[in-house]
Amino acid sequence: MAQIEELRSALADVLEKRGILESVRGRIRSEIFNALDCKDVAKPKPNNDTILINELIREYLEYNNYKYTASTLKSESGQSDLPLSRDFIESELHVKTMRQSRKLPLLYTLINDFSQRGKISDQKNSNMASSRTGQADDEMHSYSKSYLEDE
């Protein structure tokens, strides 16, 4: 009996390390949600913003190999199996990405852009405060230099 428990434990460890166990758990959760999903109840039609948000999330989930989570999102949201084109999403959001960043989900690009804007804003606020102490010239030079380096 002890050998069976050891074998079971070893097998569970191997499946856990390979990520198979978590994948199976995700698949089971997805199938449970699909089974519980009442097809008779009409879901409200999502507005354009919701569709764009769902597409950004789907792209992120699929990129990170969260297959079952992406499947659940598509099922629950009623999104099409065919994703919106990256060009269309960028035009709707008034965003243009560089060719090398198109390999990443658009959410990564948006977060990076917002965090860079925050750094620039923090630097501007810091420069305004230091100008009162007579160090404005040095800091403006530093700000300009770091801003150009970020570009």
Q: What is the structure about, briefly put?
A:
With 151 residues, the protein is mainly α. It is built from seven helices and no strands. 72% of the residues lie in helices and 0% in strands.
**CATH topology description of the largest domain:** Mitochondrial Import Receptor Subunit Tom20, Chain A
Nearest-integer average pLDDT: 78
Taken together, the total number of domains comes to: 2
Alpha carbon gap, first and last residue: 65 Å
GO cellular component, one term: motile cilium
Domain FGFR1 oncogene partner (FOP) N-terminal dimerisation: 48-112
Keywords: Cell projection, Cilium biogenesis/degradation, Cytoplasm, Cytoskeleton
Family: Belongs to the CEP43 family.
How would you characterize this protein structure?
The protein is mainly alpha-helical and 151 residues long. The chain has two domains: 7-38; 46-122, Up-down Bundle (Mitochondrial Import Receptor Subunit Tom20, Chain A), CATH 1.20.960. The protein is 72% helix and 0% strand. The protein has helices at 2-17, 20-36, 48-63, 67-77, 86-93, 106-131, 136-150. Mean pLDDT is 78; it is low at 131-136 and 139-151.
SSE blueprint and pairings:
Elements: H1 2-17, H2 20-36, H3 48-63, H4 67-77, H5 86-93, H6 106-131, H7 136-150
Helix pairs in contact: 2-4, 3-4, 6-7
Descriptive keywords:
single chain; 151 residues; mainly alpha; Mitochondrial Import Receptor Subunit Tom20, Chain A; 2 domains; 7 helices; flat
